[in-house]
Write a structure and sequence with these properties.
It is a single chain. The chain is α+β, with helices and mostly antiparallel strands and 225 residues long. The protein has a single domain, classed as Pathogenesis-related Protein p14a (3-Layer(aba) Sandwich), CATH 3.40.33. It is built from five helices and ten strands; from the N terminus they run E-E-E-E-H-E-H-E-H-H-E-E-H-E-E. The strands form four sheets. The chain has a four-stranded mixed beta sheet. Strand 3 and strand 4 form a beta hairpin. The relative contact order is 0.23. It comes from Ancylostoma ceylanicum. InterPro entries: CAP_dom, CAP_sf.
Length: 225
């Protein structure tokens, strides 16, 4: 039976792809599977890693057992929330914009997000190059080549959850669905944080945070530009 694959194109850090305005996203029916894509079918081949109780249901990081500096409770919360949102998209239950606009379409081939200490170290270095946490910088930290950055700076008293804030874009702004070539759906110029956090081929994330008396900064990197 034919399997229709949705291509989600959202703003990313790829200036050479101005014709596409962003990155490719896909969703699927199960996490962390290696797939072979023949013309009409999607065949599951393998599961990359197993899970254990130490990681609260998330995947064991491939490059470390524990984060370098990032608080473990925040790490768990960030990764689990990303994967929860991916599951909503996979199941076709992700609301598209404010209430009443329907849901995003289903798709295939999303990989489950896992923590990366290598990306965490890069995020730490990038955040350390800013004025955080003394004040909020006018520009976010620079994301290294081959990554996408996500930045939040706020007053400590706000208590805002950075990951929830980035992902909440999808509830604030409706993504326009443009049918192309029958089964393909293109999303343009909307919700870059949400799109890049749930994109099908990004499967590693690392974050850094710095907090002063008044300001708190969080900077995360994923493994796709």
């Amino acid at each position: 039976m034919p399997q229709f694959i949705y291509h989600w194109l959202c703003p990313g850090n790829v200036p050479d792809r101005t014709d596409l305005s962003g990155v490719l996203l896909r969703s699927f029916r199960g996490f962390m599977r290696c797939v072979y894509l023949p013309i009409l079918a999607v065949l599951s081949l393998c599961t990359a890693q197993t899970k254990d109780d130490r990681y609260r249901g998330r995947l064991r990081p491939a490059d470390c057992e524990q984060p370098k500096k990032f608080p473990i409770n925040s790490l768990d919360a960030f990764v689990i929330e990303i994967n929860r949102r991916r599951r909503l998209m996979i199941d076709g239950n992700q609301q598209n914009g404010p209430s009443g606009n329907g849901n995003l379409p289903k798709g295939e081939n999303v990989i489950e997000m896992e923590w990366s200490c290598d990306l965490e170290e890069k995020a730490i270095a990038a955040l350390n190059s800013t004025v955080c946490p003394t004040e909020c910088p006018t520009e976010p930290p620079n994301a290294p080549n081959g990554t996408t950055g996500f930045f939040d700076c706020q007053n400590v008293s706000n208590g805002r959850d950075a990951m929830g804030w980035w992902l909440s874009e999808i509830y604030e702004t409706k993504m326009d669905l443009l049918s192309v070539e029958g089964a393909r759906v293109i999303y343009r110029d909307k919700n870059p944080n949400y799109c890049n956090l749930v994109r099908y081929d990004a499967h590693r994330i690392g974050c850094a945070e710095s907090q002063g008396v008044d300001k708190k900064c969080v900077f995360c990197l994923t493994d796709k530009p």
